[in-house]
Amino acid sequence: MKSMTGFGAAQARAGDVEIAVEVRSVNQRHLDVKVAAPREYAPWEPDLRRAVAAAIGRGRVEVFVNRSSASRGKEIFLQKDLARAYVNAWRDLQRELGLAGEVDLALLQGRGELFQKGERPGNPEAELETVRALLDRALAAHARARGREGAHLKRDMESRARALRVLVKEIRKRAKILVPHLKERLEKRIGELLGRDQIDPARLAQEAALLADRADVTEELVRLESHLDSLRDIFAAEGPVGKRIDFVLQEINRELNTIGSKAADLEVTNHVLAGKAEVEKVREQVQNVE
């Protein structure tokens, strides 16, 4: 089990270029990959997206690729065309005005616009293998981070599932004594309304049987335990399990609602409410599970 939240990074040098790759992700219902890379790498962005999609099943994933020259700030480029234009202009002026002297290097001194700081042109295609290797390393680190977070989520959800099993046992225990309790309550109510001398034992038994049938939650408890078994198996499964857990939680919630409406018993209702609270806590956690 893995979380959808994670971070991974890797960096390396390719010739005179420093390359860094970062992978960040947060929870989202479907997979959404965003790649932010230098213009030089634009032709290979689809390849990077496919590599991410092969490693991550769900979530909003952002991939940042940074490229910088290892000698940034040290490269000086002479604007030769501009320098040539300066020299030609001075020579034209010299011929036109008949000026004596030589047009030499001294005329270009102090002209800062002739020089430009920058980076030497790189070879992005030659850097592609480095970028791919760095993305693989960043994705591996990202997977480890998601695995650690997923382990915490799994432990918490397993503890919630165990609490649900305890509540199911309590409901089953209460359901076994619920029929006599309902019969006793029905007899008391009828006695208060009609008087005990007016109670027909056969009719009372019939009404009690109908009431007990409506309040019988045996089938719901069997299905509920089956759903909890499914949940246990999903927790132990490999790969993306978030959607499967969410589906089973819906079924568990449905059975709890049915039990609460059929039982018509305060103690059972309290157990159902406690169970629904546990289901909601698991549902909050599963929103971050891949």
Detailed description of the structure:
The protein has 290 residues and is an alpha+beta fold. It folds into three domains: 86 residues, Ribosomal Protein S5, domain 2 (2-Layer Sandwich); 44 residues, no CATH class; 141 residues, Up-down Bundle (Butyryl-CoA Dehydrogenase, subunit A, domain 3), CATH 1.20.140. Helices cover 60% and strands 15% of the residues. It has a four-stranded mixed beta sheet. It has a two-stranded antiparallel sheet with strand order 5-6. Strand 3, helix 1 and strand 4 form a beta-alpha-beta unit. It is rod-shaped, with a radius of gyration of 38 Å. It starts with 5 loop residues before the first strand and ends with a helix.
Number of domains: 3
At the fold tier of CATH, the topology name of the largest domain is Butyryl-CoA Dehydrogenase, subunit A, domain 3
Query: What is the helix/strand order?
Result: EEEHEEHEHHHHHH
Shape: rod-shaped
| Percent of residues in helices | 55-70%
CATH architecture of the largest domain: Up-down Bundle
Q: Residue ranges: pLDDT <50 for 5 or more in a row?
A: none
**Helix/sheet category:** alpha+beta
Global Rg: 38 Å
